[in-house]
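Troubleshooting log. The previous structure file for this entry was overwritten by mistake, so regenerating from the original sequence record. Sequence copied from the archived sheet and checked twice against the printout by T.R.
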Amino acid sequence: MEITKEILAWSILVIGTLAGVVGVLLPVIPGPVLIVGAAIIHKLIVPTYLSWWMILALGFMAVLERLADIAGTVLGARWMGATKWGLLGAAIGGIVGIFFGIIGIFVGPVIGAFVAEWIIARRRADDSAKASIGAGIGIGISTFARLAIALFMVMLLAFDLLFLGT
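Regenerated output below.
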């Protein structure tokens, strides 16, 4: 029975970690939250591995990943001159884009920023396009940052398992 518990715990940890990294790129998977959840379940089933400090650090990194997601789009759009309407449009476009898969995640905020700048803020088309390009650049940067954070979480997890434990 004990070996079955360990196999279950390790399977959950590996699958949850892999799904967490993939989840950074796919909108329907909650990314680093899965890594934290898998680590908690592993710790509860097999308490001799992983430290609670590591679980706390992974939780902190998951919050940091969410902040990077939000900040990237907003800062990118702001950098290229978006108004508050462009930022709102990018956010709404991002939400709507989720329903159109991976392409929608990247294109939605760009279209949303453009439409909001052009129609609501009544800016010229070239200024609206500039703001929407900034939103797109911000999404790209935030995706890269989120992936880096998720991979760092995996490295922390592996370090703890290999060298620290409890």
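Helices lie at 2-23, 32-45, 52-79, 84-97, 101-120, 125-164. Archived copy saved in two places this time.
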